Amino acid sequence: MTRHNQTLFNLPLFNQHQFNPPQLNQVAIDQLQQGQAKRLSLLWLWLQQDETRLAALMVCQKVMQQQGITDWLISAGFIRNLIWDNLHSMTSQPLNDIDVIYWRDNNPSSAEDQAIQAMLIKQIDLPWSVKNQARMHLRNGDMPYISCADAMSFWPEKQTAIGVKLASIDDLTSAEFQLQVTSVFGLSCLFDLSLSPNPKRDKAIFNHRVSQKGWLIHYSKLLVTE
């Protein structure tokens, strides 16, 4: 059952021992609309240039694979800010937190979140924040979420509802992965430098977050739209 729209892109393979994945090949470009291909190519390039984000993806894939979790993403500012930084010709800002979301309903407890977070920190000391979306609906007053993408579809601003992960192409022992990009509202709303409220949420929450986060001050090209 699907309760939302999402855009899922699979980018070309790379080996887990490589920190410099290949550029989008022509076959991948031909499979996408021209505009989306350009955006994906840029996102791919920017990720390649950011060693911390690449390392975070590799480590998260390793830990999630060990835990048998397949529905997971590194989401929100991890990708949103990377795109905005580059579109503003800024050096990527330090990661204040790394939002790792996953969906597993057999043990939706904060204890499991903390255990996974500890595993990630043991691998690489970064500001990880891990949340199982199978219980986040309780905090937000929603119906239960059925996946990570479903959970993101309720987030206050459209531009934050994006996530990436490395996915094994064949089985759990494969050393080759695809970068998967999941964007609930598509990539264009990020690349056009708009900032838009999600109609599923009270706009007051959006307005508070825009003020609290200081996005319009830090990113001068952003424009609030409906």
Your description of this structure?
The chain contains 10 helices and 8 strands. It is of the alpha/beta class and 226 residues long. A hairpin with a 7-residue loop joins β5 and β6 (176-183). The longest helix is centred in the first third of the chain and has 16 residues, at 51-66. The protein starts with 6 loop residues before the first strand and ends with a strand.
N- and C-termini, Cα separation: 28 Å
Give, in spatial order, the strands making up the sheet with the most strands.
Answer: 1-6-5-2-3-4
Radius of gyration: 17 Å
Q: Please, what is the average pLDDT?
A: 84
Could you tell me the strand content as a percent range? 15-25%
Spans where pLDDT lies below 50 across 5 or more residues: 12-32
Query: Quick one: biggest sheet?
Result: 6 strands, mixed
Helix percentage:
40-55%
Number of helices: 10
What structural class is derived from the secondary structure elements?
A: alpha/beta
What is the chain-wise order of helices and strands? Answer: EHHHEHEHEHHEEHEHHE
Global outline: globular
Give the strand tally: 8
